Amino acid sequence: MHDSKIDLSALDPAQDTERWHQLVESIAVRAFARRKQRLTVGYQLLSWARPVLAAAAALTIVFGTKALLSHNEPSVIAKKRFETAYVLAKWATNEERPATSNILQVLGEQNVTK
Amino acid sequence: MLAKNVTATLVIRALRGDPDSFTKLVQAHLRPAYSVALAILGRPADAEDIAQDSFLIAFERLDTCREPERFAGWLLQIVRNQARNALVSRRLRDVPAQESSEELSSTSPMPDSSAFRSQLLAALTLLSPVRREVVLLHDLEGWTHPQIADALELSELMSRQHLFLARRELRERLEHKVSEVDDA
Fold this sequence. Notes:
The complex is a heterodimer of chains A (114) and B (184).
Chain A (H helix, E strand, L loop, with lengths): L16 H22 L2 H30 L4 H19 L6 H14 L1
Chain B lengths: L3 H12 L3 H23 L2 H17 L10 H23 L4 H4 L11 H12 L4 H12 L4 H8 L3 H28 L1
């Protein structure tokens, strides 16, 4: 039984060499652009936003619960902390990217109330 | 296929942001990526899409390629995963590949290129996925057994065996098709 190569050239994706060359260029350009974007400071910060917001929400819930249970804080402050946690958690779960001013506003309201 | 040290150098340069290295890596690996995607999906257009997507994913995650000299194997694993995901999605929403079910025209004893292409695709669907990958990488891409064994994490002996059986099954299928046409 012979075991010579099977002619699969009919399946050659580069039969249209011009089109194939353009495809290679297009992939390389898009891949480079995406990688470059990934390395920018802004992208790195945005990629950190979600876990940071989630962690902030979790911490606020923990400390808010502690405050409620200890009865050392007025209930208004504890309630405000829960509201803050709710907003942070909502941003985190919806993968929202709030503006820095919004984040400061939400966190600031908590401190003002304090 | 590029030598391992050349591939490693290109990967390291790409990590440093050298655009030429991106182009050279795509030039060297797009065809095998396409072949592996075709082996799983059976449709050339889908295979091309998956090959493209896989490159974008690979370059985004390039920092996780721990052995730059084995970039080909690492990339082909991404292609395989992407193609399998696409296949699952397609099975959920779609019907079997039209191209693979196309039959030879009964009026032409010698197949024209388009019909022969369909016939080849249909014959390939009868092989196991690993045999499809091996025969496409060897007979279409011109890879050697050591290169296939390295990229597919097989022994060279297994690569040779898969190729032998894949060719035999393909020949049987293609000869069967031609005799069907002759009888008609």
